[in-house]
Amino acid sequence: MIELFVFDLGNVILPFDHTQIAHKLFAHSSSAGGCSPREIFRYIFDLEEGFINPFEEGVFSSLEFYARIRDRYGLGLDFEAFREIWNNIFWENPEVNEVIVRLKEMDCPLFLLSNTNELHFSHVLERYPVIHLFDEWILSFEVGAKKPKRRIYEAIFEKTDVRADRILYIDDVESNVRAAEALGMKGMVFREAADLWSLMPEVHR
């Protein structure tokens, strides 16, 4: 029996494309040799060493993050123009929204657990109403830890008394799901919305 549903944000609720950022920043870059969309993407988004990692753990403010990227690549962008490029990478998944709305109608507790940053999350709060259906938001830049680090999952238990084995964690990244399972939660590697219905037999369309 599942008593609490915990959803990842990116590529579950909101698909996104980071490569758009790299290409658009390159178009505004005045840096000399070595700069390319591929290099910009690697510098910012590399899974292990990307500059986004400390940003998403709250080490840098949004303005500090922008300034570092601006100075490295000689960007001809003010902060507002940078924010526009940085944020316009998401789109909705209506079928997943339908599941979330149905769960909310059934009074199921809903948590959001996301590796994200201040810029992206403020944007999705304004743009996508589905985010406001969640009872709690657990955000890496506020917790100071990104998935699959143990600390961010422990934040779930600080906000609920539900037993771990009655919590379902849903994420598109397998290593993140396995980290949740290591703490006793049930896990689902998300591929498509139909998976959500099939694993929640108490939910009927």
Estimate the mean pLDDT confidence: 94
Q: Biggest β-sheet: count, sense, barrel?
A: 5 strands, parallel
The first-level CATH class of the largest domain is given as Alpha Beta
Please indicate the percent range of residues in DSSP E strands (runs of 2 or more). Answer: 5-15%
Low-confidence stretches: none
- Oligomeric description of these chains: single chain
Query: Which fold name corresponds to the CATH topology of the largest domain?
Result: Rossmann fold
Order of helices and strands: EHHHHHHEHEHHEHEH
Number of domains: 2
Number of helices: 11
Distance between the termini: 19 Å
Q: Could you say what the CATH architecture of the largest domain is?
A: 3-Layer(aba) Sandwich
Q: Number of DSSP strands?
A: 5
Pfam families: Hydrolase
InterPro entries: HAD-like_sf, HAD-SF_hydro_IA, HAD_sf, PGP-like_dom2
Organism: Anaerolinea thermolimosa
Protein name: HAD family phosphatase
Describe this entry's structure for a reader.
This is HAD family phosphatase. Pfam families: Hydrolase. InterPro entries: HAD-like_sf (IPR036412), HAD-SF_hydro_IA (IPR006439), HAD_sf (IPR023214), PGP-like_dom2 (IPR023198). This protein has a five-stranded parallel sheet with strand order 3-2-1-4-5, with helices on both faces. The two termini are 19 Å apart. The protein is elongated and about 55 Å long. The chain has two domains: 4-15 and 91-198, Rossmann fold (3-Layer(aba) Sandwich); 19-87. It contains eleven helices and five strands. It is α/β, with parallel strands linked by helices and 205 residues long.
